[in-house]
Amino acid sequence: MKVLGVVGPSDSGKTALVERLVERLPGSVATVKHLDHEPTLDTEGKDTARHRSAGAEASYGIVDDGTWFATGDDRTLDETLDDLAPVYDYAMLEGFSGADVPQVVLGGIDAEGQPIVEADREAEVDLDDVIEALRDVEPYETLESLVARAKRSADAEKAGAIATFTGRVRARDHDDDEPTEYLEFEKYDGVAEQRMDRINEELEARDGVYEVLLHHRTGVIEYGRDIVFVVVLAGHRTEAFETVEDGINRLKDEVPLFKKEVTVDEEFWVHTRS
Prior knowledge:
Helix content is about 30%, strand content about 30%. The chain is of the alpha/beta class. It has two domains: about 1-135, Rossmann fold; about 145-270, Molybdopterin biosynthesis MoaE subunit (Aldehyde Oxidoreductase, domain 3), CATH 3.90.1170.40. The radius of gyration is 20 Å and the shape is globular.
């Protein structure tokens, strides 16, 4: 699933731009709207009705305190994206200036994520530029979205096993360690993708292995969040388990990824710490 944000002042035309993009994007789209008030309206209310009228198949409203339409409390943007990823091709976010996602930035507003297109107002945005920039955006993947993709394989009818591995951010190795707050990953662009593709091809060439999916997240990943996934679709469990283990081992050994660890007391790049 590709994730794109649209941010800007209240009079910059954010919702109108979301409407235009929903109509143009080539696939299923869900939208998520940032709210600065209690969501007293249900999902048929005016805040998200324009998104749905434009063709969004699902639409959410989330308040800073975690409250969201229809289900109550304790809903975060990350949890929402995790739920959307297995189902939708795109997630359009409106008004989440603090989200670390690619953003269309209107009116010069400050945004946390990488701006892929900037303009003063919605009418000045060329949709072709946005869609072209989205081609290079790294997809938002979860274990569930990768398993769903494996199940859609043309060889799925021959497969009797799906094996997976998930790596996550742990707080500490030992009880007396300083707790880790988050990790930050950077990749060697171009080279990392080439190495991952090569690992995929070589593992999928094995007898009885039909699909291998590898994904490593980059950027800031907080304690408790998932970092890396390996999913293998295979004829039987033996080749599935062996390929999962080889996949994560080769990814760690061969793919150029750089990790910074931030604890409550210090921060350091793991490969440079003495």
